[in-house]
Here is the input.
Amino acid sequence: MSLNEVTLNLPNYPMEELSKIRQRLISQNKKVFDFGTGDPKIPTWAPIREAVAQSVTPISQYPATRGGPDLIESIWGYCNRNFGIKSGQGFDIMATNGSKEAIFHIALCLVGRAGGKKIIAYPDPGYPVYRSSALYAGGIPYPMHLKAENDFQMEPWTLPEEVQKNIAALWINYPHNPTGAILKKGHLEKIIEWCEKRDVVLLADDCYIDIYNPAWDKEGKKPLTPITYTSKNVYSFMSLSKRSGMTGYRSGFLIGDSRYMGLVGTARANMGVGTPTMLQKAAAIAWADDRHVAERRQIFAKRIELAIPYLQKLGMIEHKPEATFYLWCKVPKGMDDVAFCLRLAEEGVITSPSQWLSEGMKGSMRFALVPEDPDTVEAMEIVTRLVKNL
Ligand SMILES: Cc1ncc(COP(=O)(O)O)c(C=O)c1O
Here is the structure.
């Protein structure tokens, strides 16, 4: 069979590697503390679950590709409450099946055989689909290596002129997986200005926008997203996965420049990605409520507070995250990150080394704070013992 070059050269999806290690440990009857994949096991808010059950109809029909009226109205409500954006202000919205497929499919609308600029630039370390989607679309992926020294901010204006000229789209992802970094106001403004000047489409992967330090709620503060600044050439990818603990439901939305959303919708209708109607009902309930999300923020913040002191004592924390449920750490001095994470995995603590989350970044690792509080503490004690005995 003849497979194309992109498929033949795909690296193993790193999370699959992790799940193999996990399975091996389980088959050896070892207790596993799985900080590998960012998929917390907190029960989904009951009204969301009930909505799915109540929405199953005797007759099944194709769902509305762009989202039915109840869902779209609920999403506008969310955007209005959280970002002050209303329908008719230059934005349009469209339901997606979570953000992963939408991230993948947007590349097909932006670069490819039909000409135009070829590069899609994206943060590294970061979500692997930015790269694979650019490749499958026939574009050129361009990883931008983020540095702890400048708080993991993207600085596209520092790229070589030849690269800047050929960038069709720029991904940003703040709050950032894996570092937990947030976007600084001055940086966001500079990024928007740069995109305007260079005619670059700004793509904001905002799936962690609601997962931040709960103290910010009292201060009326939220992580920044470009859609609060402009609709022009900007698209934001939102998701219920992390916000509402709905990774298995596959539901999110795309909001952005209404001038092109119609075309993106027409393209997506060819890709066949309408959200099933019963899930649209559940999603409408989820976007209409912010309280269950505030409760999730408290849970993650508590886990960060539990884990951080152990890692700080070991000198592994450079930045205390204020958002996401990830802890980005330095591995102990002199150790390779893959070797350290594999060693830790043998003790039952599964984490992700930076080399699996990036294109060549070494020396760091990520804890996804998925295990419950007592298990988080037990695992941190295992990490402490291991590092002290190295
Ligand atoms: C940065 C980032 N973007 C996108 C996704 C995809 O999320 P979903 O498709 O569940 O919305 C993830 C999932 O972990 C992620 O970490």
